[in-house]
UniProtKB/TrEMBL annotation:
Record lineage: Eukaryota, Viridiplantae, Chlorophyta, Mamiellophyceae, Mamiellales
Name the record gives this protein: Pseudouridine synthase
Region Disordered: start-end pairs: 45-64
Origin: domain of life: Eukaryota
UniProt similarity note: Belongs to the pseudouridine synthase RsuA family.
The organism of origin for this protein: Bathycoccus prasinos
Keyword field contains Electron transport: no
InterPro entries to which the protein is assigned, alphabetical: PsdUridine_s_RsuA/RluB/E/F_cat (IPR042092), PsdUridine_synth_cat_dom_sf (IPR020103), PsdUridine_synth_RsuA/RluA (IPR006145), PsdUridine_synth_RsuA/RluB_CS (IPR018496), RsuA_PseudoU_synthase (IPR050343), TruA/RsuA/RluB/E/F_N (IPR020094)
One Gene Ontology MF term: RNA binding
Classification via SUPFAM superfamilies: Pseudouridine synthase
Keyword Cell inner membrane: no
Length: 323
């Protein structure tokens, strides 16, 4: 006895649809007959589904629970507080119709459509953040409170570059520090080192920056004049530092013409205290000031003072590493 194979399809019934029949007959390996059951669909249902697909295509984002979304972006501390702080106070709505409020914390929404207090979510913060910070002196790149003042404390007090509304700038920085997953520094700078420091909540991007040979530029001031012979020594790639199994990669050193105690060094790696060790162990020069002026091409533009920060384009940063 031949078995029948049933296939339910959303396609409208068409007795001439031979390709559909042939395809499923081959899948059935020629055994038995194929019986197609066409689901009845109304014109309204088809239009709604088409509109939903177009909307999803335009935003390019998956829908997610509203409580997860709000807490993930740092608007409140924990998903349980979304209901009390936002839903119960009627602070959440959809941009398709701002008069319709979101009432359920489990409702799945497109992040691009959500409004908080009548304002859209920051579009450049929905898929992760990459922050450029001008690290000041006397703060460590650690979250441990016992180590003293840290860069996260300084970021909390930071001024957002090119932000006219100081209150809004502070609120945005607080959200960055409250995000899930949390932001972390991309590498570290010593306590007394100033300059470019990045923060991100994207673990893959952070790993790419720290594991790949990205370019770092430092401005160095020593306690004495730097010998010109150090240029070839740094470029040789033969300098080995204490506690390191391998020699340093070749580095470019430019001694300032107006002041031989100052130099610019370009590296593509980041060993522990590398710059200070290279000058002290290799040249006998003590580094008294160290400033990182560039990291992976990111620089501090004019007016970017210590303690200031700026949100970068994380999408472009990911494209560099094909993430």
């Amino acid at each position: 006895m031949l078995a029948r194979q049933y296939h339910i399809t959303n396609q409208q019934y068409c007795p001439r649809d031979e390709n559909l029949c042939r395809r499923w007959f081959v899948r059935g390996r020629g055994k038995g007959r194929l019986v197609f059951v066409w689901k009845a669909t109304t014109k309204t249902d088809k239009n709604e589904k088409q509109n939903e697909n177009e909307k999803k295509k335009s935003s390019g984002r998956k829908k997610e629970r509203v409580d997860r979304l709000v807490s993930r972006l740092g608007y409140c501390d924990g998903r349980s507080r979304v209901k009390t702080e936002f839903l119960n106070r009627n602070r959440l709505s959809l941009s398709s119709n701002s008069t319709i409020e979101i009432k359920s914390s489990s409702e799945k929404v497109d992040p691009s459509d959500v409004l908080i207090d009548g304002r859209h979510l920051e579009s450049n913060e929905l898929d992760g953040v990459l922050i450029l910070f001008h690290k000041p002196k006397n703060c460590v790149c650690s979250k441990e409170k016992e180590e003293g003042n840290n860069v996260y404390d300084e970021l909390m007090k930071a001024t957002l570059m090119d932000e006219d509304d100081a209150v809004n700038g502070k609120e945005r920085i607080e959200r960055w520090l409250n995000r899930v997953p949390e932001i972390n520094t991309v590498g570290r700078l010593d306590k007394d080192t100033t300059g470019v420091l990045l923060f991100t909540d994207d673990g893959k991007l952070l790993h790419a920056y720290t594991s790949k040979k990205v370019e770092k530029v430092y401005e160095v001031t020593c306690d004495r004049e730097i010998p010109s012979s150090s240029i070839s020594l740094f470029a040789s790639g033969t300098m080995k530092l204490s506690g390191e199994p391998k020699a340093c990669l070749p580095a470019k050193l430019e001694i300032h013409k107006t002041d031989a105690a100052k130099a610019t060094i370009t590296l593509s790696e980041g060993k522990f205290h590398q710059v200070k060790k290279m000058f002290f162990e290799g040249l006998g020069c003590m580094v008294i000031e160290l400033h990182r002026s560039s990291f992976a091409g990111f620089v501090l533009k004019d007016g970017f003072e210590p303690g200031m920060c700026e949100l970068l384009d994380i999408t472009k940063a990911r494209e560099v590493f094909n993430l």
